[in-house]
Amino acid sequence: MELNIESQKQEFLTICRASIQREGLEDLLDWLCKADFFTAPASTHYHGGYAGGLCQHSIDVYQYAKRLTFLMPKAPTEESVAIPRFMQGQPV
Question: Is 56 inside any structural domain?
Answer without folding.
Answer: yes
